[in-house]
Amino acid sequence: MRMPNVSVEPMSRKSIREFVNKFRQLLGLEDVRYFPIVQFIEWYLPQLGMNYEILTIAEMNDVYGLTNMKKNVLYIREDVYCRAVKGNPRDRFTLCHELGHFLLHAPERVSFARGKIPAYRDPEWQANVFAGELMAPYYLTCCMSVDEMMEECGMSRQAAKIQYGVYHGK
Ligand SMILES: [Zn+2]
């Protein structure tokens, strides 16, 4: 979900990639191509002190996922959750994006912004980079085609194309 008019501590793609790789290592998931984001949210997130709640479409309106750092709750819209459980690539990305907010954007790292925010300080840019790198880490997927990334990592074509472009300078 968009965090409006806020700026966060700067992170480059390189530093987000290093963070993601360490995170996967800590979980013992460094060789796993299909990141189990739903299982992670259900099993591990509560152990990190973060709860999650599934809310109805009426409660969330057009918001797919929302991270409330002050309450330590990740709200997920029920249809997004159900599709992610079934492996829908876009909904898996949404959950990875919200996890990025949770892991990278603790309240003390967030401030209100004046004017245009550079990408590397934009929480949405950082959460999208986090999600792309988490679903398709460079060391596992740099030799894959877009179709292989979609198949092996459970990504949408759009997300796989972006990650492929990053890895091949396109
Ligand atoms: Zn967001």
Keywords:
170 residues; mainly alpha; three-stranded mixed sheet; 5 strands; binds zinc ion
What does this structure look like?
The structure is a single chain. By secondary structure, the protein is mainly α. Helix content is 51%, strand content 12%. The chain has one domain. The strands form 2 sheets. The protein has a 3-stranded mixed beta sheet with strand order 2-4-3. A two-stranded antiparallel ribbon has the order 1-5. 32% of the residues are buried. The model has no long low-confidence stretch (mean pLDDT 92). The structure holds zinc ion. Residues 1-3, 97, 101, 124, 127 line the site of zinc ion.
| Tally of DSSP β-strands | 5
Low-pLDDT runs of 5+ residues are: none
Question: Total number of helical segments?
Answer: 9
Shape: globular
Calculate the terminal CA-CA distance, rounded to whole Å: 27 Å
Strand residue content: 5-15%
Largest sheet: 3 strands, mixed
Number of domains: 1
Strand order of the largest sheet: 2-4-3
Query: How much helix is in the residues?
Result: 40-55%
Radius of gyration: 15 Å
SSE string, helices as H and strands as E: EHHEHEEHHEHHHH
